[in-house]
Every structure is written in C-alpha cells, then in structure tokens.
Amino acid sequence: MNNRDKKIRVIVYIDGYNFYYGLRNAYKGKYKWLDFQALAEGFLQPDMVLVEVKYFTAVTKGDKETQSKQEIYLKALSANCDKLQIIYGRFLSKLKQCKECGNKYKSYEEKKTDVNIACQILNDAHLDRYDCCYIVSGDSDLVPPVEIVKQSFPAKKVVIAHPPKRKSNELCKVADGFFAISKSKIQTSQLPNIITNKRGSQLTKPKLWI
C-alpha cells in the first residue's frame, strides 16, 4: 500500500458532561440516548478511518433513579459500540454556602475529566495512534494540551467539534479547524431503543428519555 492509499487515522475524544449540559440547555434534555460512535463516524471524510472513540464521564451522585438510568446508558454504549472506550473521572463533595440565607449545603463537582482528556490526547499523539483527532468539548481548559500537540507533532491535525451551546473561542483558535455539532447529526445518531448485550440481557431506553 503506498502513501496515497493510506487512510487518515482518527481518534475522537468526547467530554461527556460538557456534551450532556449542552444537550440539556439546547434541547431541554432530549436526545440523551446518543450513540457516540455513530456520531463520531459522521465526522469522518472518505479518506479517514476511525481508530477509537474515548468517552469521558463520571458516575453521577444524583438520586438512585438517575444513577440507574446512567448505568443503563453506559452499558448500552459498551454493548453497541465496538470502538468506544469509557474513561471515568469522579465527583467530589464540597460544602457551599447559600448567598441569600447563609446555610451550608453539600454540592458535587466533577473532577479529572479535563486532565484525563489531556493525558489521553498527548499520550496517543506520542504513541502515534492518530493522524487527526476530534475533540468534542467546549472546555477552554483543553487549550494547553492542544497547543502542545500542535507544537510537538505539527503534522497531526486537531479539530474541535463543539457540543450545542458549548463553543469555546479560545479552544477553536488553537485548533486546525472547528464546527458545531448539528441537531440533525444528534437526531440521526441515537441508539436503538432496545439493545441486547453479549450475555443476552436487554437494555431498554429509559421511558422519559425522548
């Protein structure tokens, strides 16, 4: 195979909660049963091949029903997407004080996702696992790793695919290209309503997930 026949290798990095909050703000929580591998494949040009999708998230600290829905969704992703890897961060509890009444309450903050994404982008570049990567996020904290990739591996391309209502101008400026993920791409990249995993168990889309 000569160089002209070689496909451009692509890895897609997805900031799960950044995407989730974008969906919630733009479409009031619709389209959460999303097939991220199908979405990633929709980014590709004819001369590209998808190597892997890396999906970054953390186990929610919400109520048990919310936790159950997330667990079903993550299992459905794993069962349906053969090129998708789930990489977990975590939530840390933090005491906050109400500005109006002064009462303290427990809040949770997601940690490690931006660090995990940065480490994976840089490590995969160092290992020469991709020629082009897509970063699905609007988090400006990812500017430094993108700058390092561009400085250390100038032949590699970095493209930002920003989720709904999550565009970061700072992130777009340092990338080779950027685009908004359209509503139509999200609508046509939904998982089947019922998925059967390798054990034969069925994973069903939660009733309230439109």
Short summary:
This protein is 33% helix and 29% strand.
Low-confidence stretches: none
> How far is the N terminus from the C terminus?
46 Å
Rg, Å, rounded? 18 Å
Strand content: 25-35%
Number of helices: 7
> Can you identify the CATH superfamily?
5'-nuclease
Mean pLDDT equals 91
- What composes the largest sheet? 6 strands, parallel
**Helical proportion, percent range:** 25-40%
Overall morphology = globular
Number of structural units classed as domains: 1
Specify the CATH class: Alpha Beta
Which tags fit this structure?
210 residues; alpha/beta; Rossmann fold; six-stranded parallel beta sheet; 29% strand; globular
Helices and strands, with pairings:
Blueprint (H helix, E strand, L loop, with lengths): L7 E8 H12 L8 H6 L6 E10 L6 H17 L3 E5 L1 E8 L6 E8 L1 H14 L5 E5 L6 H10 L4 E6 L6 H6 L2 E4 L2 H5 L6 E3 L5 E3 L6
Q: How would you describe this protein?
A:
This protein is of the alpha/beta class and 210 residues long. The chain has a single domain (10-204), classed as 3-Layer(aba) Sandwich (Rossmann fold). Helix content is 33%, strand content 29%. The protein is built from seven helices and ten strands. The chain has helices at 16-27, 36-41, 64-80, 113-126, 143-152, 169-174, 183-187, and strands at residues 8-15, 48-57, 84-88, 90-97, 104-111, 132-136, 157-162, 177-180, 194-196, 202-204. The longest helix is centred in the middle third of the chain and has 17 residues, at 64-80. The protein is globular and about 55 Å long. The N and C termini lie far apart (46 Å).
